[in-house]
Amino acid sequence: MLLDVLQGSEAGGFIVIQDTIHCSGRELLKCFVNTALKREDAVHILGFETSEEELRNGLDNNCALKLHFHNGYTDPLGWTNCSLFTVKQFTTEHIGQLLKKSTNPKATTLVIDSLSWILRHHNPVTVCQRLHELKKGGSVKVIIALLHSDLHQRGIVGSICHLATTVISVTPGKRERSAMAKTTRRSKSGKVMQDEEFFNVTKDYAVTVQSRSSYPEPRQTEAETTEADPTANLTFNLRLSEMEREAKEKVALPFVFSQEKKSALLKPVKGSGRILYEPDANDDFDQEDPDDDLDI
Amino acid sequence: MFPELNSILNTSPDNFKGGEYILVSDKKADASFLIHHFLTFYLRAGCKVCFLGLVQSFSHYNAVSQRLGVSLIQAREKGQLVFLEGLKDSLSVLAQESPSDEKHTLDYLRPPCADLRGLFEFVQASVNQTGSSGGALWGPPVLVIDDLSVLLSLGVSVGAALDFSHYCKTTICSELQGNIVTLVRCEEEEDEDEIEDDSSDMLLRGLTHQCSLGLRVEGLSTGYCRDIHGQVEVWWRERCGSAQTQRKVFQYKVHDKGASFFARGTSSAVL
């Protein structure tokens, strides 16, 4: 599924790559850039977190001309007066102007590295609105954004992810040099697909996905062992067949006082004793004080 | 300077990598011995060092460095070291009612100023001296900050601290191929669930996204021990090709002059 998203050229898409401090999503972002360049798309990068050299490092040199880096790294706040792109210029009009450089809007990819930087300096509501405008504006085919999800409140991350058509969460894998990507993809019909894959990033920024069979998940095998049926080798029977149930229901329990038992007990038996009591005058039995005759 | 740590990090004063952002953090332990290590390391390496000492006085740093064999006074006189004595200077800023116009370095202490632009301009100016007065006397510039989280308690927001750190990174690491060492202290949280909005944790996470090498000092979970003072987790971020960070954990003991590092469970008290 990760490879589908990587290769996919669906228009109007918005892909969010979520990462945390434990696993960086920038390598995956570079893979997306690389694939877009190989598709001969024009790639515009709003770069706040990495320098141009660092970003270009390792990418295919043949397609480098198609890559437009808008430098928000050197001076994003206008402190040193050499700003090329500031964070305040994150407006639909300005980005529209930047994108005009590329001729074909149908083959333009906008990469934001990273949304966390923008969210730190803009109201989250404004950011969402502008992303939505960009998405619907038709000047770009697809927007790919990196988001450090552990730097924001959950609500903000949630609202960004609601805008996205695809969300990829990157977490560390079990083995070294591999990471796990949890992909959630919303198609236009509203169907939501989810998948978890282990992937590797090669030196020339291509993604290789390890198949599940070749990558036994330790967690799953653990679950299998715990799920082993504890009732398998019992010396007694836990379930009843229909016949057995009927037989069981017929048996009267020993201490249940049924009608038959009662009558059997109350039936007078021949030859048994009887108590006859006729109260005389001395038997002045007082109901209120049963111990009256004890003379204490 | 601790030779053992150098071999762990695979560097030496004669041969070290430029453009690195080193983040030192501590939790339930004191990581300032690493600050002293890096300070003496870069002074020995002949770098131009800008030191923002926000938590201790100059004489304290000088006393410790002297034990490690480097004199800060000499380095300062030679122009190799630029020292911002945060404790002393901030007091004069706070005591002074009317703001003086000539210095904006500690502007963040005054109410309307929300960003650390003044402090960054100080760093930039001291780092750029290499070209003008001293010629090519000193090597690549190095910024050492002890510690950044103290700014949070002085009323600076996490975002402003991260912006400051970003600007330092662009100027020193990318432009001038120098290095940055930053110390961040984490509060000891009593409740594990409340980590979400703790500002020092937020600062640590933000800086972790920026840094290239991290050293995390922690106390032993089992409590104080005479022979092992704690453990250091070393991690390298974003080495080419691997999306995941590399980690190594060592235990350490700080001595009078230096510190020793060893693999877990191999201290002299155990073996």
UniProtKB/TrEMBL annotation, chain A:
InterPro entries with a match to the protein in the record: Elp5, P-loop_NTPase
Keywords: Cytoplasm, Nucleus, tRNA processing
Pathway linked to the protein: tRNA modification; 5-methoxycarbonylmethyl-2-thiouridine-tRNA biosynthesis
GO molecular function: tRNA binding
Signal peptide residue numbers: none
Superkingdom, taxonomy of origin: Eukaryota
One annotated Gene Ontology cellular component of this protein: elongator holoenzyme complex
Keyword Lyase: no
Biased composition (Acidic residues): 280-296
Subcellular location: Cytoplasm; Nucleus
Chain intervals for the UniProt region annotation (Disordered): 274-296
Keyword NADP: no
Any Gene Ontology biological process: tRNA wobble uridine modification
Family, as annotated: Belongs to the ELP5 family.
Protein name: Elongator complex protein 5
Native species: Chanos chanos
TrEMBL record, chain B:
GO biological process: tRNA wobble uridine modification
Keywords: Cytoplasm, Nucleus, tRNA processing
Cleavable signal peptide: none
Compartment list: Cytoplasm; Nucleus
Pfam family for this entry, one: ELP6
Keyword Chloroplast (UniProt): no
Location (main, coarse): cytoplasm
Record GO cellular component, one term: nucleus
Designated name of the protein: Elongator complex protein 6
Organism: Chanos chanos (Milkfish)
Lineage: Eukaryota, Metazoa, Chordata, Craniata, Vertebrata
Gene: elp6
